[in-house]
Amino acid sequence: MRMIVALLLLALAALAAPAAVAQTPVAPPPLVDPDAALVEELVVTGRLPGPAWWTVSDADTTVYVLGVPSLAPKRMQWDRAIFDKRLQGANAVILPFTNIRAKGVGALGAGLNLLRLRAGGPFEARLDPATRVRFVAARERLGESAKHYSTANALAAGVQLAADYRERHELTTTDPAKLVELLARRSGVPVVEKTYDIGPLLGAILRTPAATGRLCFEEVLAQAEAGPGITLQAARAWASGDVAGALENERTYERCLMAVPGGRQFDERMKADSAAAIARALERPGHAIALVPLRPLLAERGVLDRLRGQGLKVTTPGEVAE
User: Fold this and answer.
1) Which domain does 136 fall in, by range?
2) Does residue 234 sit within a domain?
3) What is the rounded (10 degree) CA torsion for 303, 309, 314, 318?
């Protein structure tokens, strides 16, 4: 149970959408990407070695902002020279505000909801013949049995498939932030992080329309069929400061999150909290480092757009100096 919970919460850090699947595909409304529209003047290739950096500053403080991938290879290699230099003497390192878990008594409710999601026998038995063939081929390539996907819920099947796909191809949502946190703590730099309670969102999964859940499952299946090529290419672009190339990464889960009751409010809260944390870091003279997922960082009404709206100075990777 602990492992299943961990997998579900990991996927929900960027995803969500479910409900019982129909025997034949149902035409759902299109999924909306909350970060589809970017602030184009912020999408600039970095001129320094390694990944691209933005800055947010006032009269006596600079926050160096590193936009990080939402999905990347585990233990991804990147040029850390600029990061290491900025870590020295930093007031704080703000990690991505993407941590989600069931807190306190909410863990019990989350566990009960998960049991409901994991009931119903092999998921593939509920699929139309054409989709069943695709799904069976995908799970067999991952080395998994039909029993492994025991659920009547499209989201639960999609989450499990996504987790298995990521594990098989050694992809993660936590790098490079995990390495940055380790280096910051080793250097004695205070780490700022935030964890959200997944309980309410997990309950909302069960109320999401079946057609939307099916569409999310289809997107995950298509990603598993396509393989990790897009993600690996985007990761290489990110490591070289090619912001436009890095933005080509998969967007399955972010669109699904918006379809869940409360999903838009949750996305709004994470962006607002990230912007507020950067603004608070400016209250102390000196400099700090912040990591923010790349698209939420650069989107219209994203983190940098909000900070510019507060009158703070934002510079692009084409302007940032060492």
Assistant:
1) 2-24+37-315
2) yes
3) 80
